[in-house]
Design a protein that fits this description.
Largest sheet: 2 strands, antiparallel
Mean pLDDT: 90
Shape: globular
Bound molecules: retinal
Low-confidence stretches: 277-283
Strand content: under 5%
Structural class: mainly alpha
Number of strands: 2
């Protein structure tokens, strides 16, 4: 009964102010398309954790181990993130401000996604930076800019006072994203040439850049932005991108690390390698 009532409210867009966590939980459960988009990620994250632990059982080089640990954190954070969404803990119904296409209506906002991206995406970047042979400055810059992107994305989703300010946060988040893209496409691409990991780095770089660009596009088109797409479709878009950006990405990276552990071990130790133009070939 509660489920049907919650589904009707969700479908009509007439959601009472201040829903309890149990009501949000029921509303999510009642939308089978939305629920499926969340549960599939819990299942895949669980399987990935088991697979990655098994793949890494014989890895001994510390740098390769660090790449494994960082990558393994991605499905671990993911399973927690999706559990938060499914339980209703990290989802709120927020009233959109004047100017928004759904102004005055309560829109389901899965803000836990943006919060947990602030933990999972730095892990992806740390793994990529280690693979490229990044120095500490670039790694730090990429991770900090990435956290800035996620936290300001969270602010965009949670701002209900002004429609314009939602987009101001969005633009700030995009500015942080540009820094991340620059490091990936220019700095680390060059570092990977020097480190001898260019082939795998380039594959993962393209996968990452193409998929990550999809997130701001779907945010803009989804219910929280221009509201061209509905909540369940947007959730499927994020879940689909997550599956490739996290599990496929992690599998390709870890498989390569296992097969090329000696090459990873031969990379300069530490994270203090010189920056631009300072490869041995320049002497
Ligand atoms: C937001 C909205 C504001 C503008 C920008 C965004 C970018 C998000 C990205 C997320 C990547 C997430 C991944 C998660 C995997 O666990 C916050 C959507 C630029 C790039 C890869």
């Amino acid at each position: 009964m509660i489920e049907t009532a919650a589904a009707d409210l969700l479908a009509s867009g007439m959601v009472p102010l201040e829903m309890t966590q149990a009501e949000v939980f029921q509303a999510i459960r009642a939308d089978s398309l939305l629920s499926a988009s969340l549960w599939i990620n819990v299942a895949l994250a669980g399987l990935s954790i088991l697979l990655f632990v098994y793949m890494g059982r014989n890895v001994e080089d510390p740098r390769a181990q660090l790449i494994f640990v960082a990558t393994l954190m991605v499905p671990l954070v993911s399973i927690s993130s999706y559990t938060g969404l499914i339980s209703g803990l990290t989802v709120s119904f927020l009233e959109m401000p004047a100017g928004h296409a759904l102004a005055g209506q309560e829109v389901l906002t899965p803000w836990g996604r943006y919060l947990t991206w602030a933990l999972s995406t730095p892990m992806i970047l740390i793994a990529l930076g280690l693979l490229a042979g990044s120095n500490m400055t670039k790694l730090f810059t990429a991770v900090v800019a990435d956290i800035g992107m996620c936290v300001t994305g969270l602010a965009a989703a949670l701002t209900t006072s002004s429609y314009m300010l939602r987009w101001v946060w969005y633009v700030i988040s995009c500015a942080f994203f540009v820094v991340v893209l620059y490091i990936l496409l220019a700095e680390w691409a060059r570092d990977a040439e020097v480190a001898g990991t260019a082939e795998i780095f380039n594959t993962l770089k393209i996968l990452t850049v193409v998929l990550w660009l999809g997130y701001p596009v779907f945010w803009a088109l989804g219910a929280e932005g221009l509201a061209v797409l509905d909540v369940a479709i947007t959730s499927w878009a994020y879940s689909g991108m997550d599956i490739i950006a996290k599990y496929l990405f992690a599998f390709l990276l870890l498989r390569w690390v296992v097969e090329n552990e000696s090459a990873v071990a031969k990379m300069a130790s530490g994270l203090g390698s010189a920056s631009r133009g300072a490869s041995p070939a320049d002497d």
